[in-house]
Amino acid sequence: MALIVQKYGGTSVGTPERIKNVARRVAKFKAQGHQVVVAVSAMSGETNRLIALAKEIQSEPDPRELDVIVSTGEQVTIGLLAMALKEQGLKAKSYTGDQVKILTDSAFTKARIISIDEQNIRADLDNDCVVVVAGFQGVDEHGNITTLGRGGSDTTGVALAAALKADECQIYTDVDGVYTTDPRVVPEARRLKSITFEEMLEMASLGSKVLQIRSVEFAGKYKVKLRVLSSFLEEPGEGTLITFEEDNKMEQAIISGIAFNRDEAKITVIGVPDKPGIAYQILGPVSDANIDVDMIIQNVGTDGSTDFSFTVNRSEFTKAMDILKNQVQPHIGARNVVGDNKTAKVSVVGVGMRSHVGIASKMFRTLAEEGINLQMISTSEIKISVVIDEKYLELAVRVLHKAFDLDQEDA
Amino acid sequence: MALIVQKYGGTSVGTPERIKNVARRVAKFKAQGHQVVVAVSAMSGETNRLIALAKEIQSEPDPRELDVIVSTGEQVTIGLLAMALKEQGLKAKSYTGDQVKILTDSAFTKARIISIDEQNIRADLDNDCVVVVAGFQGVDEHGNITTLGRGGSDTTGVALAAALKADECQIYTDVDGVYTTDPRVVPEARRLKSITFEEMLEMASLGSKVLQIRSVEFAGKYKVKLRVLSSFLEEPGEGTLITFEEDNKMEQAIISGIAFNRDEAKITVIGVPDKPGIAYQILGPVSDANIDVDMIIQNVGTDGSTDFSFTVNRSEFTKAMDILKNQVQPHIGARNVVGDNKTAKVSVVGVGMRSHVGIASKMFRTLAEEGINLQMISTSEIKISVVIDEKYLELAVRVLHKAFDLDQEDA
């Protein structure tokens, strides 16, 4: 008997019929003697409908009240799924984030989980009950409803698995695993049987969109065994297992995949005085405004000043530019702030590159042969990322996928 | 400065535009220096949509899970209204029933309020904040979400007014007050400037549908000044005040109105042994099944047995019949159980009838002249009710409204 946490996304619970399918799948696991906790998203389209409704009232909805509204999406799903499980003859009980209680900080619309009280859930499980938990939501210390931000249901699933010390956290989604790159861009893309946490972290943060980055961090931190599976296949198969032990692989592939992110915007602060503390003075106000910064690059200055570049999500570009121009630039005495929100990021990812040389030069040569200019370059032990003009994105992904032989089964 | 509780029903908050109108109305009261608490229903149609969704999963939805789902309707409204109030430049904060906390019993889908913790609300009011509370919902001692049943938002409004010792509870609805009868049936129906609690109680319970009966009971019990107003008129006027002191009226009208209820079903237990405790043995199991019983009639038996009749809401007819036939009849040894769910109830209501004779005979004569047969008769100090074939309902209401001169301003 194992304790399994399953997470189903919006399309997996998008209609009453699909909710019944989820209930049937859960019933199979119960029949095998497992204990099951299910975390669910809102029915697909519901979150967007609620946000649109809020925007009819306020063009920039109050974050606290937006969370009150948006969190109802998952609340409807948990009730429906609990009913569907009862129809399968199972005991079932739904929990909102508040009811669990999933304690978060008070950063409305992008809260972070602080702790999960697993006592009531465990009592229900011991009572042979399937527990259905609303993903994406929690409650702060004052009892305010919070949401974890887009994709936060994955994090709920992993956090529940960690709190309950579950044997496995299964993320059911509309793809059957993690691919070497997006099959919509490269039809030859292959499903990976396993991928390391580090690679997954890079793949997710770089926009592979299979899993939300925070959920992978969480899984890594608490050593949660995480598996990505399809919720639409009758037999979901084995999906992609996310592993800790890279050396489990007999023969390590050099590169596991090509990740990319279309929603990238680049900002450069020009003529920054080259002295200690300047990075903090630039990024502090941006971070205070709850804007996530992705790539950060600073070149060594030659004339006592330097240029400082970083990327943010495109949706936060205007807000970030505003902070930099009006608060940061006058304060630190920079010469100018320039931005470009028509950029994209492409990365090659793989733990194998640690023991191989020449990956970077192969990547740069491949792109150069297509005439693609590199605006920013950033490297880590297991990935190399470049920022390019967004119009070359698909081309770049395709040629890199081929150059690194990712379409070959024995790559 | 007064403390006012306002309650807005589903049609009053049916669209974003109407929610903005509500916010403007609240802003007027704030501008006059009042403290305002607003209780709201779900946007019109929303509760039915959610129930329909639940029924796609379970034809008879699990009550606990149904409450989890249905309570989201009001939760969306409170968020939207709080936003609209902020757009008006006001401080505003939303509360779910759980957040308040509105403690109820655990009778899912028809819970009763046990207590309201008004401390946080009062702190917000003192901080110049408009408080927006989700109507219709609460939380039981175990933290389960409950709903108060249809129309329960009125009860929330009155209960909040009682807990906060508010100066007035204003129920905004789609009519501009309480009428002598339903204007859709009798166009000559007039708005009453005031009505006593006792009359209102009879009017509401008999199906006038302006206010939910429990809210009126609550208002009477806690001496809450209750006023019914239109939420659609630019200037809502004075509506109808519900008073305690019947002698406030200079000249008491004999009859205040004609109430009626279409959703009545009649059940008769035939050949009941005429001995003490039999009424409890019949109605106990019905009540245990949470079925509300309305009229109850028992004739004195002549041959050691008697017939026992009562009415229930038509939607619970099948369930009640089932209990009576399978549990009650064999247990008490009754001869038969018969039912009729094509009945309706018509009542004349008025505190004035206490000091007048001949009201009953006038009512019966009026109906007899139209050839309407009376299946059950029940009287109280301030009302006389009859159960008739439902096809005569409109006719009965019209002729009684005229017979008691309710269309005359000085009636």
TrEMBL record, chains A, B:
Keyword Heme: no
Domain ACT: 267-342, 348-411
Keyword annotations of the record: Amino-acid biosynthesis, ATP-binding, Kinase, Lysine biosynthesis, Nucleotide-binding, Transferase
GO biological process: homoserine biosynthetic process; lysine biosynthetic process via diaminopimelate; threonine biosynthetic process
Pathway(s) annotated for this protein in UniProt: Amino-acid biosynthesis; L-methionine biosynthesis via de novo pathway; L-homoserine from L-aspartate: step 1/3; Amino-acid biosynthesis; L-threonine biosynthesis; L-threonine from L-aspartate: step 1/5; Amino-acid biosynthesis; L-lysine biosynthesis via DAP pathway; (S)-tetrahydrodipicolinate from L-aspartate: step 1/4
Highest taxon, organism lineage: Bacteria
GO cellular component: cytosol
EC id: 2.7.2.4
Family affiliation: Belongs to the aspartokinase family.
Protein name from the UniProt record: Aspartokinase
Organism this protein belongs to: Ferriphaselus amnicola
